[in-house]
Amino acid sequence: MAPIRIGIVGLSASAKTSWAANAHLPYLLSPRGQSHYKIVALLNSSVEAAKKSIQHFNLPPETKAYGDPQALADDGDVDLVVVNTRVDVHHQTALPSAKAGKNVYVEWPLAQDAQHVEELVQAARQGGGRTLVGLQGRVAPPVEKLRDLIQSGRIGKVLNSEVVAAGGLNDRERAPQSLKYFLQRSVGGNVYTIGFGHLFDQIQYVLGDFTNIESHLQIQRPEVKIFDPASKNVVETIQSDVPDLIYAIANLPTSESTQAGASALLRFRRGQTFKGDPALVWTIQGTNGEIRLTAKDGTTLHASAYSGPVTIQVYDFATDTVEDVSWEWADWQEELPILARSVGEVYERFASGNGSVLASFDEAGVRHHQLNKLLDAFDHQ
After folding, report:
1. Is residue 340's pLDDT more than 80?
2. Which parts form a coiled-coil structure per UniProt (predicted)?
C-alpha cells in the first residue's frame, strides 16, 4: 500500500512552541512512520519560511513549500493535511482543505471560538474528507486501560467518578513568554481549553458523554507574571481572563457498565498541587470495587505526564484487597519521545482504518459546545 502523503502546516524552524517537531515529526520520520506516511509538503507563513523548515528538518529537497493554505488545498498530491499552528490560526489554514474534501488532522482545540469551530465542522461535512482532532489522550495506554476495566465489569456498575487535578501551567503565578496566550481567551488555546479540555475529553471517553453539566468557574489569580525563560526575569504582568479554578458536576449515561443516576465530579486548578500531592487523582467507584489512577507529575496523560509514575489500582470490595494494574507502551512507542507516543498511535489507527475512537471534527464540536456552555455561565454569573 502506498504511503499516505502528508502536508504539514506549522512545522517551523523558529516557532516559540514546537509541538509539530516534538510530537508529530518523531513518528513520521521513524521507520514505522515512514512505512505508512510520507511528508510531501509544508505550509508556513511564507514560501520562504517553508523552504527554511524543509532544510532545517532535513526533509527531502523535493518537499513542496507553500505559503498559501488554498495552494496546499489545491495540491492533488497531498492526501492528509496536518495543522499544527497556534489555535487562532487553525481555522484559516484548515478551512480550504476541509472544503476541498481532503483528509484533515487539526490539533486540539479545533479553533479559537464557537463560530470558527462550527465553520470547520460544516466545511468538513460538506467536503466529505476524513477528519481528526488532536485529542490523542483517548489512545494513551492508561486511559485505554481504564476504559477496558470499566467495560469488562471489573468493578461492577459505575456509581460515580471523581477527578482532582492541578496543572495547565507549571506555576500558579508565572508563565513563560511563549505561553502568554494560555492566559488569553481570545487566542482559544489556554489553561481552560487545553489544560482542562484534554482531561475533560478523556474522562468522557472512558465514562461516556456527560449530561446535565453544572459548574463553578473562578479566576483566583487574575494577575500573572510573564517571564523570560532564558534570564528567568519577569518582563511584564498581565491580566488573565481565563478561569484558573474549575468545578464541574455531571450525570453519566446509563449503560451496561454504568448505573442509572451515576455522576462525575471534577476539580481542576492552574499551577502546583499541595506540596507532595500528585498532580492528578482520578477515582471511579463501582458496585463491586473502585479504580484509582494517580499521576504524580502531571495531568497531561495525552503528552508529558510520564516524567513520574502513572499508576492504576483496583480495590476489590469483596476481598478487601488492592491490586496494582499494569499498563504499557507498545515496543515501537518506547523508541519515540514521550510526547510523540500517543500522537503516533493516532497516526497508526488512521493509517489502518481502525480510527473509530479517534476524535472527528464533529466530536470536537461537541466538546467545544460543552466547554463554551460552562464559560457562558461563568460570564453571566
Report:
1. yes
2. none
